[in-house]
Design a protein that fits this description.
By secondary structure, this protein is an alpha/beta fold. The chain has a single domain, classed as 2-Layer Sandwich (Transcription Regulator spoIIAA). The chain contains five helices and seven strands. A five-stranded mixed sheet has the order 1-2-4-6-7, sandwiched between helices. The chain has a two-stranded parallel ribbon with strand order 3-5. β1 and β2 form a beta hairpin. α2 packs parallel to α3. The radius of gyration is 13 Å and the shape is globular. The N and C termini lie far apart (44 Å).
């Protein structure tokens, strides 16, 4: 059974929770469940701001997209927000086809996503 720590690395950068996927692909049910546990652990804090980096991820399953939608809803319900970054063009195409690019704020690079929270605070 995959553990959350095998799939995601979670850290804090300037008050934003940074979640980096460790694996090049999240395909198996066990990996998806571990990803879900890792992501859900960061949404327990009301108002949490999260950046999820997909650097190195070349494939996603629909189950992963379902996890992201669930995490987005929980964050929104608690006043928080998630932003996505470093998405491979092939993976981004999945977000476009499913119109999830309209649901999520997506940035080319992790540092841009992190900076966007600071820019929002200044506005």
């Amino acid at each position: 059974m995959a553990e959350a720590a095998d799939i995601v690395h979670i850290s804090d950068r300037d008050g934003v929770t940074l979640v980096r996927l460790r694996s090049g692909a999240v395909r198996t049910e066990a990996e998806v469940e571990a990803l879900g546990r890792g992501l859900l652990s960061v949404v327990e804090v009301p108002g949490q701001r999260v950046v999820l980096s997909f650097l190195g991820v070349k494939h996603l399953t629909s189950l992963v997209l379902g996890q992201l939608i669930q995490v987005n809803k929980r964050l929104a319900d608690s006043g928080g927000e998630i932003r996505l970054a470093d998405i491979d063009p092939q993976v981004y195409e999945i977000f476009t086809i499913t119109q999830l690019d309209r649901l999520f704020k997506i940035y080319e690079r992790e540092d841009e996503a992190l900076a966007s929270f600071a820019e929002d605070a200044e506005a």
